[in-house]
Amino acid sequence: MLEKKAKLQLRTNTAKNVIIFLGDGMSLTTLTAARIYKGQLQNTTGESEHLSFEQFPFTGISKTYCVNSQVADSACSATAYLCGVKTNKGTIGVTSNVLLGDCPASVIKEHRVTSIMQWAQWAGKATGIVTTTRVTNASPAGGYAQAAHREWESDKDMIKVSGGQTNLTDCEDIARQLITKDPGRNFKVIMGGGRDNFMKQGLNSTGKRQDEDLILNWKNDKKTRFGDKVAKYITTREELKTTDMSKTDFVLGLFHRSHMDYRLKSNFETQPSLQEMTRNAIQLLQKEPNGYVLFVEGGLIDKAHHKTWARIALDETLEFSKAVSDAVALTSEDDTLIVVTSDHAHTMTMAGYPKRNENILGLTNSISTDNMTYTTLSYAIGPKKSFINDTTCHRLNVTKEDLKQIDFEYPSLVDRQSDTHGGDDVMVFARGPMSHLFTGNYEQNQIALGMAMAAGISTNPPTSSTSTSNVVRLQFAGQTILIISMLISLMRIVKCI
């Protein structure tokens, strides 16, 4: 390993393609526990295992806090790593001048920001999103939406969340923005869950919308604007498997009414895996002559952690690792930058002194001062208290619990309906052109700017006369490094904070 590192050379060429993988809630503890879990599933010593992306040549650490919160949510963090700007908790694609739920403030042009998806389209690149959550959920929405509230996923949601207290006349829900506004309406690939947010309410419909059927809108838009292109709407794994991506130009795949099912609870016959969706997305996009930018999210890691379902969280992390592995196999390190990171941490800890190769999901077999053992994994906050609520305040006896249950709730210290996020820094792994930009410890918003720099794309909209003022070419070690208006963007960010 050291010899390999000693021979490592920087790739300073421009990235034709960029893929950002986002493990939602994938904390450092999650990575450690998942690699051990992976090894133990294979009957090997898990501690020395690796997840696919842990073998990338460059790693860094990202600071995840929001402008107004020490602990981030998926909305403010998505705005950071996809738009290059830190903002307030619960808001998407807007500056910190917009408070949660403030529709009037969010429509002011100066308060709205663009994402790397928009920058890529300005540069003539194809774009797409893949997720195991609703495609309108906070993380993917960071790539295309501008909203004062992350829960405004449909027009019905806007009315429900605002409670009639906010004037919503000028604001559009996230699903509508995806289908009708730039950059969402130009996405070549949209895959994930959340079908109900696009369908109109009706007698034989599970849809939530009160205005129109956005799926029909998507079909009509592709026929009108790209009549000679092939556009397919799919809802099942079989339809995905039988779609020839080499002959398809646009795909809208909505595989669940809401979030997709956890792999351990899913129907493999009807629901595709993250690995399958990722592979198909790359196969569609790789024929683009100018390259592409693709966002892929393993969103159910976070959902499982919220329920303190450690086994499912680790399994979803392994599914995420498989998707990254496929992306590596389908692309070249010479022209494709792959960045793997997380938006925020969770409160799961790995503690005690379990013996080497002890079941990571089991007991430590150490005895505490109350003469009872405890699980290696536990949560600081969650729905299952560590202590029994009685006058003697006894701790939960985990030896009497069925830890083999897929959805066993791991004990927590603080009793709360669900686990909260953690404020820890998160890891960043990078491979491909300019991947060395992602080393060190830095603000999360620099990830978006670093990806743009690596791909040689500007964060500013094109003008009538193609200006080169935003791109300065410097010769270094015989290589051309594209430096975009990063300093200007960083000054803008500092001003917002």
Write a compact overview of the structure shown.
One of its GO terms (cellular component) is side of membrane. The protein has 497 residues and is of the alpha/beta class.
Mean pLDDT: 92
Structural class label:
alpha/beta
N-to-C CA distance = 41 Å
Number of helices: 15
Number of strands: 19
Binned strand content: 15-25%
Low-confidence stretches: 465-497
**Largest sheet features:** 10 strands, mixed
Helix content: 25-40%
Q: Give the strand order of the largest sheet, numbering strands 1, 2, ... along the chain.
A: 7-8-4-3-9-1-10-16-2-17
Shape descriptor reads globular
- Output the radius of gyration: 23 Å
Could you explain how this protein is built, in words?
- The protein has helices at 2-6, 28-41, 74-83, 103-106, 116-122, 138-141, 155-162, 174-180, 214-225, 237-241, 274-285, 300-306, 310-330, 446-455, 486-496, and strands at 17-23, 58-63, 126-134, 189-193, 201-202, 205-206, 231-234, 250-254, 292-298, 336-341, 345-346, 348-350, 377-382, 412-415, 421-422, 426-431, 440-443, 472-476, 479-483.
- With 497 residues, it is an alpha/beta fold.
- The strands form five sheets. The protein has a ten-stranded mixed β-sheet, with helices on both faces.
- A hairpin with a 2-residue loop joins β18 (472-476) and β19.
- It starts with a helix and ends with a helix.
- Mean pLDDT is 92; it is low at 465-497.
Features:
single chain, 497 residues, alpha/beta, 10-stranded mixed β-sheet, 3-stranded mixed β-sheet, 19 strands, 28% helix, globular, disordered C terminus, membrane
